[in-house]
Specification:
Catalyzes the reduction of 1-pyrroline-5-carboxylate (PCA) to L-proline. The chain has 266 residues and is of the alpha/beta class. The protein is built from eleven helices and eight strands. It folds into two domains: 154 residues, NAD(P)-binding Rossmann-like Domain (Rossmann fold); 97 residues, ProC C-terminal domain-like fold (Orthogonal Bundle), CATH 1.10.3730.10.
């Protein structure tokens, strides 16, 4: 299945990050991509690259093989109904909205559609996203196409839809949690003598190296921790102090708080 036209309805932070990822990886020509936003002036960088920019959602959706919905959850029903006349039975609809089920999205449309929910994170802009995808009313060819699309911008996998809320917390919110860890490590680095730029460089590369070790070697975090902790050493002393201060428990509680916010809508 070939994509001749892809529309991103809602050119906010995530929508534009996806557009940058598509362009960077050469998945589509700029002329094949349409992005919409009310204030189109905020999309001038894409216009300069040859991307089609508009504030007309129906125009963008017309004839599109794949439509990504990058709008807020409360806007989703209105937008699907707005572009409804342009939707065909083969149109692949990908929702990036949190908390709205595929069944609900189908209910907004008079046409039975292949519907996907996808939750990338903002690292999609540089081809390093972890994207979780669920499929509804889709055939294998359509699933393969959507996975291929997101796999070119990082890692992607199909999960049961009931895990989408959890994937939002772990992958999409998770990138902010990781950033906060790097920020805290940077602040600590400043306290022990580094300038802020150098402390940030060291902290960020160290975290990148730690993640790559796990991804490339397939090892467990504790296996790698054991390699750098020695009896009465400085590493184990620091780790134990972090745990005494609630490091792991506070992170887990943060994840659960975000998850409950999605599940309960509060």
């Amino acid at each position: 299945m070939k994509v001749n036209k892809l529309a991103i309805i809602g050119g906010g932070n995530l929508g534009t990050a996806i557009a940058k990822g598509l362009l960077a990886n050469g998945l589509l020509e700029a002329s094949q991509i349409y992005i919409t936003r009310r204030r189109t002036a905020l999309l001038n960088e894409f216009l300069e690259k040859g991307v089609n920019v508009s504030n007309d959602n129906r125009l963008a959706a017309s004839g599109a093989d794949v439509i990504l919905l990058g709008v807020k959850p409360y806007q989703l029903e209105q937008v699907v109904k707005e572009i409804g006349p342009e939707l065909k039975a083969h149109t692949i609809l990908i929702s990036l909205a949190t908390g709205i089920s595929s069944e609900s999205i189908q209910g907004f449309s008079s046409v039975k559609l292949p519907i996907f929910r996808a939750m990338p994170n903002t690292a999609i802009e540089i081809g390093e996203s972890m994207t979780c995808v669920s499929a509804y009313n889709a055939n294998q060819e359509q699933e393969d196409l959507v996975l291929k699309l997101f796999s070119q911008m990082g890692q992607a996998l199909i999960i049961p839809e009931e895990l989408m809320a959890a994937s939002t917390v772990l992958a999409a919110c998770g990138i902010a949690y990781a950033m906060r860890f790097i920020r805290a490590a940077t602040q600590g680095g400043i306290e022990i003598g580094f300038g802020s730029k150098l402390a940030l460089q060291i902290s960020a590369q160290t975290i990148k190296g730690a993640a790559d070790l796990l991804i490339q070697k397939g090892t467990h975090p504790e296996d790698e921790i054991d390699k750098v902790t020695t009896p009465r050493g400085v590493t184990i002393s620091g780790l134990n102090e972090m745990e005494h201060q609630g490091f792991s428990s506070s992170l887990i509680k943060g994840l659960l708080t975000s998850f409950n916010k999605i599940e309960n809508g509060k």
